[in-house]
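Subject: design request, 203 residues
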């Protein structure tokens, strides 16, 4: 990270020694290492010797996740980008979609499923972004989970967070989900009798 980026993130981290355990390595190096793992996809044990010991970084990562630090950092960064783009800090509209991806051989059977529509055995990720494409929420379920079932959890989370009341989705999010969401978010159904693709002003 640059000095400017670190100056933005450092105040969002928990106070040093919050659990009585002194830091053996600078926390800036720990954050840089976490970003490296996320970007490259390498395993913790495969970190190069230039980084702090993987056990130390992983210890920070797990505890920061448990404390919601990552989510707080993402919220602050998203708000900053939105302000720089001339938008309100908190979005009033969101975009919801899902994608089924093939599971690796190491993915346990209890966390994977078969998406009969896409012919994929693996997991399904549900993603909510704002209209700039900035990440707001992610949920990973077995690929066998219906779009409607996964969307209910995602939409309820948006409703409880009081962030936005307009959500744009695809045709896979329909039927009972539309009836349920109508009473919560005001989502409208596809016009009866429509064939083929067509963009609706608000769905």
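Subject: RE: design request

Done. Sequence follows.
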């Amino acid at each position: 990270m640059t000095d400017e980026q670190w100056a933005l993130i450092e105040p969002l981290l928990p106070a040093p020694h919050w659990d009585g355990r002194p830091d053996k390595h600078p926390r800036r190096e720990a954050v840089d290492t976490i970003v490296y793992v996320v970007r490259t996809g390498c395993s913790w044990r495969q970190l190069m010797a230039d980084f702090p010991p993987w056990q130390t970084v992983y210890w920070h990562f797990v505890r920061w996740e448990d404390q919601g630090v990552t989510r707080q950092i993402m919220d602050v960064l998203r708000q900053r980008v939105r302000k720089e783009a001339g938008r309100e800090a908190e979005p009033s509209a969101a975009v919801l979609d899902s994608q089924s991806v093939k599971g690796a051989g190491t993915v346990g059977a209890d966390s994977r499923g078969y998406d009969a529509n896409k012919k994929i055995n693996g997991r399904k990720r549900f993603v909510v972004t704002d209209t700039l494409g900035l990440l707001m929420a992610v949920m990973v379920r077995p690929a066998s989970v219906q779009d409607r079932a996964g969307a209910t959890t995602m939409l309820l989370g948006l409703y409880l967070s009081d962030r936005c009341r307009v959500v744009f989705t695809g045709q896979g999010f329909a039927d009972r989900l539309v009836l349920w969401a109508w009473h919560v978010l005001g989502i409208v159904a596809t016009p009866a009798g429509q064939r083929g693709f067509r963009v609706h002003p608000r769905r």
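Helices lie at 3-9, 27-40, 54-66, 69-84, 147-161, 176-184.
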